[in-house]
């Protein structure tokens, strides 16, 4: 059911991505990887609904979304730039039970993100940390440039991310010290930075539709079992 949720905090992640922290009337928790619906109602009664991935475990009754601003979008620019702290939106969820990581699963985890597809995967990373899990994680994050890395400070802190190996794959602009050629994710990237298929990892891929299709095909070509590959796409 829909419920009111008050915006209590916003954090700018990049020039186009903002984290919004809401306090719903009642929230009974969610799984890492799930999403929820946000509904906005205009003064004239017009309503718009969008689904966004939950970016972190619930904490003190609060939930987080990281929203990527879409140029000429109807909802995301308002959420990122205009919805003031203290204002209310309506939220329904959590939704989804397949693209989720449960801490009881002890298999290694491979996370493959494209752009803002990092959001539900970051929720898994944060859930792992929250429960002090020792399951090894590897993250391959494809992004256009260093300025567009969402959660860059958090991902770069070893003290927060013990047991997580992060590989940033730049497609258009990279720091001078990076030797990998600019370009989209490829077989060599997943071979070098992912888990081999014989480890039987749980694989999660999230990003634009074309990115997800390409990454999934590479994993299958490398010998990963398709039943262990879970995908979520947008666009």
TrEMBL record:
SUPFAM superfamilies: Ferredoxin reductase-like, C-terminal NADP-linked domain, Riboflavin synthase domain-like. Residues 1-101 form the FAD-binding FR-type domain. GO terms for molecular function: 2 iron, 2 sulfur cluster binding; oxidoreductase activity. Its cofactor is FAD. Keywords: 2Fe-2S, Iron, Iron-sulfur, Metal-binding. This is Ferredoxin reductase. It comes from Glycomyces lechevalierae.
């Amino acid at each position: 059911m829909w419920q009111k949720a008050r915006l209590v905090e916003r954090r700018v992640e990049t020039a186009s991505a903002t984290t919004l922290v809401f306090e719903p009337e009642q929230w009974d928790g969610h799984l890492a990887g799930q999403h929820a619906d946000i509904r906005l109602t205009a003064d004239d009664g017009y309503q718009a609904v969008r689904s966004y991935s939950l970016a972190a475990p619930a904490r003190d009754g609060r939930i987080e979304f990281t929203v990527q601003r879409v140029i000429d979008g109807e909802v995301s620019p308002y959420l990122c730039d205009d919805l003031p702290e203290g204002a209310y939106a309506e939220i329904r969820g959590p939704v989804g039970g397949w693209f989720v990581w449960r801490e009881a699963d002890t298999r290694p985890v491979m996370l493959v993100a494209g752009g803002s597809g990092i959001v539900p995967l970051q929720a898994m990373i944060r859930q792992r940390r929250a429960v002090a899990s020792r399951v090894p994680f590897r993250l391959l994050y494809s992004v256009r440039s260093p300025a567009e890395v969402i959660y860059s400070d958090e991902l770069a802190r070893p003290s927060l991310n013990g047991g997580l190996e992060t590989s940033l794959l730049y497609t258009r602009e990279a720091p001078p010290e990076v030797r990998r050629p600019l370009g989209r994710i490829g077989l060599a990237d997943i071979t070098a930075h992912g888990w081999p298929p014989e480890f039987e990892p749980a694989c999660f891929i999230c990003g634009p539709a074309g990115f997800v299709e390409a990454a999934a095909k590479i994993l299958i070509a490398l010998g990963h079992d398709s039943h262990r590959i879970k995908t979520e796409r947008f666009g």
